[in-house]
Amino acid sequence: MNVEDLQWQANSRGGVFPRVVDCLVEHGHLDLVVQAAGERGDWFCARAAVRELCAAQEFERAWVVIKPLADTGWLPAVSAGADILLLWGRVEDALALARPDEATWQDGEACRAYAEVLVKAGRVDEAITLLEPHLVDGRVLPSLVAMTEGQGSDERVLGLIVPLAEEARRVQAEGRSSSWWRALDLQAEVLERSGRVEEAIRILGADVAARRYGPQNTVQSYVELLARHGRIEELRQAATGGQAREALPPLVSALKDAGRAREAETLLRGFIAATDYPGSFQALLMGLLAEQGRIDEAVEVVRPTFENPWDGLLYPAVHMLAEKGLHERALRLLDECSPEFLEKTHWVPANRWWLMEETGRCRQAIAEVEATPDLDADERAATIAPLLALDGRPDEAIELLRSHAGVSEAAYLAELLIGQNRADEALAAIPSVAAQREHAQRPWGD
Hints:
By secondary structure, the chain is mainly α. Helices cover about 70% and strands about 0% of the residues. The protein has a domain at about 155-245.
């Protein structure tokens, strides 16, 4: 067990796949999850075990699970260990675990993790003081804002944010890029949560008007702020003033919530008619109409786009129908596709087989998959196995997956085995972290 392996698991959702861990827990195999956390050094098993054990107030057992991972110094495991100790009432031990050593005291992430523990221990002022020298790290300021919410320290936090926001405004006014762009959104966020909504809207609205945009679009934060407070007219002004892409979704939602769905529909149809690239507006209108049960109209709104190679909305339309339980209608849309479109589009067959599965036509789908020449043996097995299982043939599905065992198929194989109360076999079917990492490094197609 080492930091590199743990970080790879977290980044790649590797090790024992999270959905398999959840399946084990749901089927009553918590002891096996605890065992796998220790024997495999598995992060997702450890995380789930800690969650379940803490919910049962088995803090000592949870600590035994997390301690080997926390001992590596990997920050997510250290934070998880500190949370257990806090729940257990061992506050000083939690602080000692999370406290950076001399080598990491200058590391913003380590101090951020320690500050979160300080806040949970009720020592908010210490946490803020700790993070002040690290605000130059762009990841620390958002964390400071998040961890201090509801802690009665908004004025002090604003005192740190405002100078950074003003610096961002000054630098951007000079045409230069600012490293403090997030301070604009965060200033408004803290003002809003402290009850100063009008001030938040005024300041962030001025930033939008001055086109003070960072990598995270300030317009998005502004329209979401307006939407949270039902400011329909300001949202309309933003939508008609050049920010339609960001402002229309919350405006449509606000109008609908206010019982003004027809007004939202008229607005969207106007934008669709007035632009050469109306795809996002058509998708919004489709959703609005579908929510009102006007399914035929919803489909017709987007039908002209279906075979557009850049802005086609066939895929969203198919899934909209499926979400409404209209799988046969969704299938008909796919059956209407031209041969030329199907030749250039790769997502249609898999979605067709999924829809056939949903309508109970598993055997027909299996026959189509077997007759498809473009699938290699592993792809064919991964596609047919779920169809076999849903057709009441789980043993055949398991044997098929075993004969084409690979990292990609391991999660579904494990879920089938768990469903048959073969949890030990399920875990054994999951490749080790080393094997998964080696597989991930292979060139595509190998």
